[in-house]
Write a structure and sequence with these properties.
single chain; 254 residues; alpha/beta; Rossmann fold; five-stranded mixed sheet; four-stranded parallel sheet; 11 strands
């Protein structure tokens, strides 16, 4: 059965309404987004400029708490892809979901497209999170968990470390949480306590995945007015800083 909204026939599987703007303005949209989740509507929310990488517009336009605020809405799948191929998978997730809305959080800045001959297939993102790359065999010494525009930072950091490092891409927490326990434990082994999250947003909420021994490269403050790359660099989102933080964590937890 289809329904009629504003004179448009919404036939299941044929049409998905969408809205799009900067992520910072999701604050104003929250009632509509919440109602789409409450009503199990197949809405698609597309937000861009999803971090302090926005740059010179400054703290008023730089989202920091928004990733977690939107993840807090029940039945909303919040997808933050890390490169062009993951973005294609995010779009597929949005088109295929029938039980509720999907939100895409996309960057302003240009991101490298990861060589899928060197890392896992982007299709693995359809499970919400997956092992992108690992430097050695068996259980890793430390796990770097990253989303969105910070994924390449974690990947480059891992390649410089003198340890068995796993990089986990987590574009959609909600979808990952729906996977069988054995799959989740394969991606994030419970026995590996050294886990470092890397996301340009507040650290609150990451304890769900990093556990009580983990740490976060995060932004527990408002941003700053400067070129986006400079803001990210000064707030620690560089491969060098992530590698340093991961090594310190590994030493502390070991």
């Amino acid at each position: 059965m289809g329904s009629i909204v504003n004179g448009i026939s919404l036939t299941q599987g044929m049409l998905k309404p969408y809205g799009s703007t900067f992520l910072i303005f999701s604050d104003y949209m929250r009632p509509a987004v919440r109602l789409s989740a409450l009503g199990h509507l197949q809405s698609l929310w597309v937000w861009t400029h999803d971090s302090v990488g926005v740059g010179e517009d400054g703290p008023t336009h730089q989202p920091v708490e928004h990733h977690m605020a939107l993840r807090a809405i029940p039945n909303l799948w919040y997808v933050r892809p890390g490169d062009a191929n993951e973005t294609a998978m995010a779009w597929r997730i949005a088109l295929e979901r029938e039980g509720g809305p999907v939100a895409l959080a996309l960057s302003r800045q240009k991101l490298p497209t990861l060589d899928r001959n060197e890392v896992a297939p982007a299709e693995d993102a359809l499970r919400g999170a997956y092992t992108l790359w690992q430097s050695g065999d068996g259980l890793p010494d430390v796990i770097l968990l990253a989303t969105g525009s910070e994924l390449w930072v974690a990947y480059e950091a891992a390649q410089t470390m003198d340890a068995n490092v796993r990089v986990v891409s987590m574009p959609c927490w909600e979808l990952f949480a729906e996977q069988p326990r054995d799959y989740r434990d394969t991606v994030i082994p419970p026995d590996v306590r050294a886990r470092l999250s890397v996301e340009a947003g507040i650290s609150h909420g990451w304890e769900r995945w990093i556990g009580d021994a983990g740490a976060s490269v995060a932004i527990d403050r408002f941003g700053a007015s400067a070129p986006g790359d400079e803001v990210l660099r000064n707030l620690g989102f560089t491969p060098e800083n992530v590698a340093t933080r991961a090594a310190a964590l590994l030493e502390r937890v070991a």
